[in-house]
């Protein structure tokens, strides 16, 4: 049995990740999925969250919006609307977006698109979480 | 005979123009190359989307067995009374016939559907300006229509950098209006671009979704052979490949996505998966249309600027000839004056 997984992450703009790794973590719609080589074939939708993968000893994280994933014993392919690495995340913009969404929820205007605002809030939070993780690992070394 | 100084001045002016057109040609060529790459980079995603959608469709019952009508509202076919047309042109001119070609197709399209209500969404400044001159501006989905054909919205400056996120938003709004039955079908008119010499103008129907993974073309307008040759020449001069880019390795892998001959575990019911992916598929169709239109606009501008540069060269040649002749004539005249003056002595 294969002992590595070939991970591909594709967005409408480009191929973001194409790497062999030993562990992948994906935010499935029904909860987090940890995937190791030899996993049973699976197709799942993703929710907004973090994708983590590990080739060596350190985990790497990306923030994803909606997408879905195909898991095969030796391969994981992820399709996402957007996938950003920590270094590509604009922390300031994410913070602003978060503040904006929170403000909108607090005021709760009659014409508020509740789902869209929650979605924006969740996205901003995930972006910040991924960025923060990168900051931590950078600090540790 | 024209004044030598005047001619010299004109030559200088034409040379300046040539410098500008040459620079614009080079810039367009570079932008075209980038636009082509982007269009190519979006293909694996599109391919995977189609695969998953098809396999989910096989598993899910998309057609209600009792009524025989599709379960998903984006698949529902209704008589086309209210049509939404998305018109994709460029934001800027100086692109040869690019914008007017698209607008010609729009006129034809509107003639064809002249007895229907057509709402138009303009992407690109040139199309917006054209429509504003002819049709009233109305509100989409309002109780009162401003006219049988009305302009319901515009997206300017979207094309300078086509972002998937913003296209997704537009597509979401369109899909919502379709689900709420404000509109019965959605067409996109744009300049299809496979390569510099494989282009045509099409009106593509993106809603209702009929067949997944294939463009449903309602109206097409091919380029003339002459136009294609001209574009090919300009592309060759700028060093741009005329071939359609082949399938990349990533694409070949994408083609296998979700099609392994195994029994997948579906985390969600196939119906749910299908319902979530279908709107994305519509967004992707629109996204690819926009990317192609951008590439086509740059190709058209490059061709136009190549022609302009060539024309400037011709004008400079002929002006130089005229100037030399005038100078020669002046010299001859002077010699004759001297000679006849000497003879008179």
What do you see in this structure?
- Chain A has helices at residues 91-107, 114-140; strands at 5-10, 15-21, 23-28, 31-35, 42-46, 49-54, 59-64, 67-72, 75-80, 83-85.
- Chain A is of the alpha+beta class.
- In chain A, α1 (91-107) runs antiparallel to α2.
- Chain A starts with a strand and ends with a helix.
- With 345 residues, chain B is of the alpha/beta class.
- Chain B has a single domain (7-312), classed as 3-Layer(aba) Sandwich (Pyruvate Kinase, Chain: A, domain 1).
- Chain B is built from eight helices and seven strands.
- Chain B has a six-stranded mixed sheet, sandwiched between helices.
- The A-B interface holds A 8, 10-15, 18, 28-30, 40-45, 66, 68, 70, 72, 77, 79, 81-82 and B 38, 41-42, 44-46, 48-49, 52, 164-165, 168, 250, 253-254, 257-258, 260, 262-268, 272-273, 276-277, 280, 284, 287.
- β5 of chain A pairs parallel with β7 (265-266) of chain B.
The name CATH uses for the topology of the largest domain in chain A is: ATP Synthase, domain 1
Low-confidence stretches of chain A: none
What is the total number of structural domains of chain A?
2
Cα radius of gyration of chain B in angstroms? 28 Å
Under the CATH scheme, which class of the largest domain in chain A?
Answer: Mainly Beta
* Largest β sheet strand count, sense and barrel closure of chain B: 6 strands, mixed
> Runs of chain B with pLDDT <50, length 5+?
none
Spatial order of the strands forming the largest sheet of chain B: 3-2-1-4-5-6
CATH architecture of the largest domain in chain A: Sandwich
Structural class of chain B: alpha/beta
Q: Biggest sheet of chain A, open or closed, and with what strands and sense?
A: 5 strands, mixed
Under the CATH scheme, the architecture of chain B is 3-Layer(aba) Sandwich
Per the principal axes of the C-alpha atoms, what is the gross shape of chain B? elongated
